[in-house]
Specification:
Rossmann fold; single chain; about 10% strand; binds adenosine-5'-triphosphate; binds magnesium ion
């Protein structure tokens, strides 16, 4: 086989990682008079690396996350009362293996969504199937969907290893159909021992009001809290700090 035929064969065999680096590895082997096995191992590694990064990219896309936040860029001094060790514990992803949940409840702008997204992103990197949803927006969309679409959407929220429902009850009282959806998600995931992370700035005592049904709130919370880490986010809004620093910068210009 000549080079063109080799490249064609590699594409046919879907070895695009090897195909991409072949000419470089060839040059390297000639330059260093490298033993065959060493070159072959490097080529296999190229293929593995490419497959892994493709899988990670696909998992990230499926997750619904729109950014890649990390706990490394979180300023823990800004709100010193945040449950820092509980956040890192969550970030270890042990909760996924254990089928445990986390409720991150607290004041606006204190970083609840940031932490939940950082955990979700870490889970995609570790090979978990993750679904991140802005709860109110997605629940409203569900309410407008056909019965067949609703069944499909529900499946998509029950199947993943980790589901993040961000900013639940942002719009205060949610529609009855959304409340029933939340109940189905929680009940089904509970039976399957699959983790849910919920962030909200509404304390659980008020969930009955936001769901429009106190009994439903009890059955949901009962299952959610059976195996659950409760993280309370007390403190000042980082958004206000950012807005204040923008005003100061503009004023100084
Ligand atoms: N301690 C922090 N260090 C760095 N960035 C932070 C910190 N706290 C919050 N932020 C940033 O501030 C913005 C608001 O945070 P976030 O959306 O996580 O708040 P939240 O608690 O979810 O608020 P809400 O209850 O309104 O949904 C985000 O851009 C987030 O990255
Ligand atoms: Mg939020």
């Amino acid at each position: 086989m000549n080079m063109i035929e080799i490249e064609r064969a590699l594409r046919e065999l879907r070895l695009s990682g090897i195909a991409e680096t072949l000419s470089t590895r060839l040059m390297q082997a000639q330059a260093a008079q490298q033993p065959f096995l060493e070159t072959f191992a490097a080529m296999l590694q190229d293929e593995l690396d490419r497959r892994r990064s493709r899988l990670t990219a696909r998992r990230f896309k499926r997750s619904g996350l729109d950014e890649r936040p990390s706990l490394a860029d979180f300023d823990w001094r800004f709100n010193p009362k945040l449950p820092r060790s509980a956040c890192f514990e969550l970030h270890t992803l042990k909760c996924i293996a254990e089928g445990a949940n986390a409720l991150i409840i607290g004041k606006p702008g204190t970083g609840k969504s940031h932490v939940a997204k950082a955990v979700a992103y870490q889970a995609t990197l570790q090979g978990y199937d993750v679904r991140y949803v802005e709860a109110d927006t997605e629940f409203a969309r569900y309410g407008l969907a056909s019965t067949a679409e609703q069944a499909e959407q529900l499946k998509g929220w029950v199947a993943p290893d980790l589901l993040v429902l961000d900013d639940l009850f942002l719009a205060r009282r949610i529609a009855d159909v959304s409340a029933e959806l939340l109940q189905s998600i929680v009940h089904q995931r509970y039976k399957l021992r699959r983790s849910i992370i919920i962030t909200s700035n509404r304390v659980v005592q008020d969930w009955g009001t936001y769901l429009g049904d106190a009994t439903m709130a009890t059955t949901i919370l009962d299952r959610l809290m059976h195996r659950c880490a409760m993280l309370e986010f007390e403190g000042k809004s980082y958004r206000l700090k950012e807005a204040a620093s923008r005003i100061t910068t503009t004023a100084a210009e």
